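Risk register update: the risk that structure generation would not scale has been downgraded. Supporting records follow, first protein first.
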Amino acid sequence: MISRNVLRGLLAGLLVTLKIETTLAQEKPEAEVLRVPEVVVSATRLPDLLLDLKRVPAQVRVTTEEEIESSGAKTVPEVIQYQPGITQYQNVGNAIESSLDMRGFSGEPVTTTTMILDGVRVNNPDFNIVNFDLLPVDDLERIEVVPGTASVFGKNALAGVVNLQTKRGGPVPKAKLEVAGGSFGHQRYRGSVGGPVGAFDYYLGFTQYLEEGFRDDSDADVRRLFAKVGRRIGADTDIAVSYLFVDDRLEQAGSIREDLLAQDRTQNVTPGDFVAHTLHAGTLNVRQQLPAGFSVALNAFVRDLDQESLVVGLTSRSDRFTDILTGGGTLQVTHDATIADHRNIFVAGVEVTQSAFASTGSSQFIPFPPSFTNQETDERVLGVYFQESFDLIPEVLILSGGGRYDRDRIDFTDRLDPTNNRMRTFQRFNPRAGVTWNPTAQVGLYFSYSEGFRTPTVDELFAQAPFVSNPDLQAPKSRTYEVGARARLGEHFEGTLALFQTDVQDDIFFVVTDPATGGGLNQNVAKTRRRGVELTLKGRYGEIVEGFVNYSYIVPTIETDVLLASGQVREGNDIPLVPRHRLGIGVNIRPIEGLTFSLAGLYVGDRFLSSDEPNQARQLDNYFVLNARLSYRHGPLTLFIQGENILDTEYEPWGFFNAFSNQRFLIPAPGASFLAGISVEFSGFYQ
C-alpha cells in the first residue's frame, strides 16, 4: 500500500520540478467560427494519438478556448450547460457548487459522468462527486464531452466522459489581466502569463472569485493558482508538469420549504452551512514517439484534498472533516500502421490508482446527544484496457472494438467500532464495439455498443451500518446501444443526431424492508432504463453571425416495482430530476470588427423532485433562462458586460419531496444579474 508520506513526497517532487518556471499564460487563438472538430483526444484514455472525428463511433462535442472565455462562466457546468442531454442543477444554494450528469442519469445518489483533467480522473473517490470549484475553468484550452458509456475509461463512466485540457505556453510570450464586478457583490480578478524560456515553455494563471450571493449567507470566496512547465523536443518528445492549488470557502443556503419560499426567495432558514476546500495537485504527462509507428504516453499524478463542512438544520447539526489523498498513473502504448491502404490503430494501457480518505465528524438531532464518526478507507484500483480500429474500406468503413478490465478493492476501517470493518473487491470486464460508415466527405454514420459499471460508495456499503448501508451490494452494470449521424450541410451548416438506450442492472436505491416501521437498507434494483434522442445544429453566415440549436428528449424510467422510503414505485415511473425535454439555443453577432453580441437561452422541461421515485408530488416547473453578453475589443483592450437570466425568470432548478410531511423543499435560482469588466492583453514583451 502506498503510504501518505510517499504520496506527499511525490507531490513535493512535482512541485520542485515546477521551480523551472517563471510561469505565466497564453492568449487564445483566433476563432474558427464554424467548428467541426477535425481531431479529438477523448477517443483514447490518454491523448497520445489524435484521431479524426470520422473514425469515432460516438458523439464528441468540443468547446474551444475562445468559447470558454467568451462564455464568462464560473464553472465547467456553466460552459457546457447548453449541450443536449446534460442534467445540471445547483442543489446547495450558492453560485459555484452544482451537480452534473448526462444521458438520463440524475447525479443522484452519485454522479455517473467521469471528469478527466489533463489525463487525471478528478471525481472524488469517496462519493464520486466532482467539486467544480476545484477545476481551473479559466485555464482550460479545450473541453470535450463524450456522452454514452465510456468502457475504456473504467468504472463510474456509465453516462459518459468530460475531458478537460489546460493551457500551455506558446512560442510568443503573452500575458492577460482582467477585473470584473457586478450583481450580488460579484468580483473577479484574473491574471495569466506564458511563453518560452529557453528550451522550455511555461504558463501561470491566477483567479480570485468573490460573491455575496443571491441568498442570505451564501457567500463564495475561491482562489485558484495553476502552473505548467513543458518541454518539446522536436515532434517526438513532449513533457509537461503542472501544479494546481485551490483554496475556497463556500456558504450553502440550502433548500426552503415551499410556503416560506413564496414569502422571500432570498432567505436562508438554516444559516451557518458551509464547505471549505484546500487542494494541492501535481500532474506529469509524457509522450514519446518510437520507431515503426509505436508511441508511448505516461500520466502520473498526486492530489491532496482537505475538506471541512458544516450542515445546520432547524433541529440538527452535522460537521465533517475529510482528507483525501490520491496518487497513481497510466501507461499507454499505441501502434499506428497502414498495410495496403488499410489503417489499423491499436492502443493498450494499464491504469493504477491508490486512494486513502479519512473522515471525522459528529451529528446531532436535538434533544438527543450527538453521535460521532471516525472512519478511514483505502481503495486500490487496477485497470487494463485495449482498443483497436481498422479501416475495412480506407476512411469509409471503420470497425472499432476494445474493452477494459477493472479490479477495485475497498478496505473500510471504523476507528470507533471495529466490528464495522469491512473489505470488498469488485471486478469486471467491459467490452465496447462500433462501426463507422462515411459514405461521403460530408456525411458519417455510426453504431456502437458499450458496457460499464460503477462501484458502490463507502456510505452505500459500510459507513452507515446497520441502518442504511449494505455490504452485500452488487456493482450496477450498464449496456448502451447507440446509433448516430453527423453531417456538414454545404458551407454554412452542420448537424449531429444520436439515438441511444442505456439499460442498467442492479441500480442502488434505499429499499423499505419493514413496511410497518419504514426501516430498510440500500439494495440493488433489477433494472432502470434511459432512452433518448439528441440533436445539434450549427450555422454560420460569413464572419457576421453564427448560431446553434441543441435539443434532447430523454425518457428515464425505473423498470421494476419496488417499495422505497418515498413510497411504492411502479414499473415505468420516471427517475427524478431528469427533464424529458431540454433545449439550448444561441447566436453570436459581429456587426463590426471587434464588437460581438451574444444571446444564449436554455429551456428545461418539467422533472420530478429528488426522492420522488413514486412520481406522486407536483413536479418542478419547466423554465427558460436567457443570458446575454456584449464585448468590444480594440487592440489589447477588451470591454464586456454580460447578463444572466436577463428576463428575471423565477424558477427552481432543484428540490426534494419529503413523503412523511408531504412537503416540497426547493432551491430558488437567482433573478437577473449583471457583470461588467475590462481585460488587457500583452504579447512579445521579451525575446
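Supporting record for the second protein:
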Amino acid sequence: MDATFDFRLIELDGPLGQQVQAVWSASVSIHSEPVTKPLFSDGASGAFIILKGEVMYHDQSYKQGVHWIPVKKQAQFITMSAGVEMVGFRFHPAKNKDHYPIFHDDFGYVEELQNTHSDKGLFAILLNTPQPERLTLLCEWLEHNIKSDISSNALLSFIGHIDHKAELQSIEKHIPLSLRQIERQFKSQVGFTPKYYQRLMRIRQAIHLIREYPTRNLVDLATQAGFSDQAHMNREFRKLAGMTPKEYQVSKQ
C-alpha cells in the first residue's frame, strides 16, 4: 500500500445511486512527490472539490474550489501536488449538473459555495472534517440536495443494458423507443454514439480484470473483455486509455 497517496471510493445505491454513481476522496502526503494517476473515461461527468493544494488536469491548473469535469472521450491524467486533499462525485452517463436546480446558482466557486444559502458551509465543513468522514458528509449533502431526475429514463435503461459484449440491436426490446431514436438521444446527452460508449466499456472491463488478476495472460484477458484479440485490445488501449495494456498491468504488479 502506498503510504504517500490515499484514495477512497464509495459506489452508491438507493435513490441517490440512481443519480450519482460514486463519491471519492484523495490525498497526497505533504512529504511526497506529485502523484499522477489516469482517469479512464466512462461517459460520465462529475466534480472535484479541492480542499488543499494544487491539481493539474487536462493541461490546466486547478486550485482550492469546486470544479466541474465534463465528459471526456479518452482517458485524462491528473497530477496532484504534495499536500493535496480533495473529494468528488461522479454522475451516471446522461446525467449532469444541468439536471439539478441546486447546481444552477454559481456552485463552482469557493466564495459562493460558502456564502449562498443552499451551499452554505459545505466547503468549510469538508475542510475541517477528517478525511475518513468526508465521504459520509458529502453523501448526506448530495442526498439532501439532489432530487430524482426522470427525464432520461429510456436512455438510462438503454445504457444500463450496454456492456462490453452486448449486441446493441438486441437491447432495443428493453426500451420504449426505436434504436434510431435512442441513438439520437444518446449522442445528444452523452456526447458520442452508443458504439463508442461500448468501446469505453471494453476498456473498463479490461482494466477491472487486470486489477483483479494482475498476472493473467493478456491474450486470454482480451477475449474475456470483449475484444477480438490482443492486437485489437492494444489498439483500443492506446487510443482510449493513453497507454498499453501491458503498461497498465505492470503498474498494478
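The longest strand covers residues 20-28. On this basis the risk owner (M.S.) recommends closing the item.
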